[in-house]
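User: Hello, can you help with two protein structures?

Assistant: Certainly.
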Amino acid sequence: MSEEYGSDFITVKDDEGNEFELEHLDTIEYEGQEYMVFLPADMDEDDEDYGLIILKVTEEDGAEILATVDNEEEQQKVYEYYMTVLFDESEGEDESE
């Protein structure tokens, strides 16, 4: 994701109608499925309950929608894959400095 234009923010609504603003960090593909990685926009770094939010990109009635990853094993595998990609990119940036 290009940092040239700043951060991307979206507002999502949960099943109960509550709205949340999320900062889009990255979009990744894992095992043929597309996922988007977010942080809560109102994240307090001291709050240990906050963390990455990974949503699956799915299609419904011809439109792309974001869905929660309900399978805990799938969620963990995507998280671990993202961390690997993130740290591989970070190491490459350090070497070029």
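That covers the first. Now for the second protein you mentioned:
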Amino acid sequence: SAFSRSGLIDQLEYEGFTTSQAEYGTDAQDADWNAQAALSAESYLEYSAFSRSGLIDQLEYEGFTTTQAEYGVDAQGADWNAQAALKATGYLKYSAFSRSGLIDQLEYEGFTTTQAEYGANAVGY
């Protein structure tokens, strides 16, 4: 699994290590946190659709810094239009939307207007 520094410390504490032990163990790995962010971003995109900003937010939630999260997301070379289309498809499996409602929802998720419109067009709206 990919971890942020703080995420790995939290995991080790959960497993019973003290904070100082967890910090020591984490820092002893001399991990490349940018690489860890890239692995985490890749993992998320394997099973779910995200906007660029939404994926950055997710990685920050996992404890990566903004710089690490941006690096990890950008390392994916993701097609954000395709991600918008995947997200739109997912929404329509479970809910009814008007075209403008679907675009609004995609924008809420962090897609640009152009990406949201692409996603709506891709699902026939």
